[in-house]
Structure formats: structure tokens, C-alpha cells
Design a protein that fits this description.
The protein is mainly alpha-helical. The chain has three domains: about 70 residues, no CATH class; about 110 residues, no CATH class; about 40 residues. The chain is built from 14 helices and no strands. α4 crosses α5 and α13 runs antiparallel to α14.
């Protein structure tokens, strides 16, 4: 495909991309780092770029659970975990980051309770560029205590102090303090936000009263916007 690009064989490029996406998804998932790096090196590989972007945001499990997950580059890992649309809980992201970091240092003991100070320093040096993209404040108090606190030595000191202060102040172990971290956007929420971004035409008085009535009856917000869209288009049709 790279050769086809160099020879400007556009039809062949389109065919090869389509073939890979339709028939070689397992191979691409297992070699995602290579596919990702290759696709974004060339502006002609738009279908592959879309495939990579969709896989990162919509099906990250296929990347994280790949047998070759530990082989992906730090740069790609950062690209994945900094996404607002990553369809994965924050605790899962943290645990996969730990898994990746440990895989880069196979000489470390399998039981972190046996880690020496040097062992923690070794682990700390591996994912340190990724840690700023973990939204720790989206964790529950219990998640922090169970999964982050044991690895406190790999966190920046000031971050750890603030996290400890924040989560110790929460009375409910399942509660979260998400005001300091931007939340991930689920696919449903993303669709809802897109719906809210519609540019509606001005409504006539009678149409406004219908929407006001909809609000008063406390119909769910998505229904309100859906009805607003229908009424607006009905108004356009009526006036044409």
C-alpha cells in the first residue's frame, strides 16, 4: 500500500484499504501500533485513519486486550488515554496503564508488595508521560484506595497529596469527586451533544408554547429537543 501511494495509484490504495478493513480486522487489531503509525504518515490512507480513530474511541477493549498490547508505543498509548470519547471507565484505563508499564519492565517482581524503592522508581519512570492524562478525580474513593494507593510512589508527590486529601474527604466509598477532572463522554452523551448543536430556525409563538408545555410536563430532555426539531421543520413546511 505504501508502494501504491508512492506511485500515486489512488484506486489501488482505496481497494487495499477497503480489503484490510473488511477482511483483516483481527490482524490490524493485533498490529494496531504499526497500522496506526502507518496510516497517519500518509494523507491518502483516510479509510485506515478513520478505522484507527473509531477503534480507539468506540472499541478500546480490542486494543487493550490484544495479546500485543504491551508492544504499543508510549506515544500511541497517550493518544488513546487522552481521548474524551474513550469508551472505558477511568479505573480500567489506570489498570491497563499499569499493565503496560509492568510489561516494559519484566524484571520487576510480580507482587508489588515485594517492591523495593528501586523497583518503584523503575516503574515510575516508564508511564510518567502517561500519568497526566489519567483522570484520577473521576475515580470513586474505593477505586482510589484499592487500585491507586498501592502505587502511590509512582505518582508525582503533589498529585498524590491532593488525591489523598480529596478522597479521604468523601464519606461514601462509591462517591466520586469529578469536579477536578473532565469526564469522559459516552457514545450516548456524544450523540445527545450533537443533537443540541443543531441550528434551529426561529419558532413562531404557537410553536414556542408547545415546547414550553413540553418542558412543563417534564418530558426527558432528549424528547424536548426531538420535538423541537420536528416542530421547527413542520413550521418550515407550513410556511413554504
Amino acid at each position: 500500500m505504501i508502494a501504491a501511494s508512492e506511485l500515486s495509484l489512488q484506486e489501488l490504495i482505496v481497494y487495499l484499504q477497503s480489503f484490510l478493513v473488511k477482511n483483516k480486522t483481527n490482524w490490524m487489531e493485533q498490529n494496531f501500533d504499526f497500522v496506526y503509525q502507518t496510516s497517519f504518515k500518509n494523507d491518502s490512507f483516510l479509510d485506515l485513519q478513520k478505522y484507527c480513530t473509531d477503534l480507539i474511541t468506540k472499541e478500546p477493549d480490542k486494543i487493550f486486550k490484544s495479546p500485543n498490547f504491551s508492544l504499543i508505543s508510549e506515544k500511541l498509548l497517550i493518544t488513546i488515554i487522552q481521548s474524551d470519547n474513550l469508551q472505558m471507565s477511568e479505573i480500567q484505563i489506570w489498570e491497563y496503564l499499569l499493565k503496560w508499564g509492568l510489561a516494559q519492565n519484566p524484571e520487576l517482581p510480580t507482587d508489588f508488595k515485594k517492591y523495593s524503592k528501586d523497583d518503584f522508581n523503575t516503574l515510575k519512570n516508564t508511564p510518567q508521560q502517561c500519568i497526566p492524562f489519567i483522570r484520577f478525580y473521576n475515580l470513586s474513593s474505593k477505586e482510589f484506595m484499592d487500585s491507586v494507593l498501592p502505587y502511590k510512589r509512582i505518582l508525582p508527590k503533589e498529585l498524590y497529596k491532593d488525591l489523598l486529601k480529596t478522597f479521604l474527604s468523601l464519606l461514601d466509598p462509591d462517591s466520586k469527586s469529578s469536579d477536578k477532572s473532565r469526564p469522559r463522554i459516552s457514545s450516548n452523551q456524544s450523540q445527545f451533544n450533537q443533537m443540541n448543536e443543531f441550528e434551529f430556525f426561529p419558532l413562531k409563538t404557537s410553536e414556542e408554547s408547545i415546547i414550553a408545555s413540553t418542558k412543563r410536563n417534564e418530558i426527558p430532555t432528549w424528547s424536548y429537543w426531538k420535538w423541537k426539531h420536528i416542530i421547527t421543520n413542520f413550521g418550515k413546511f407550513r410556511s413554504s
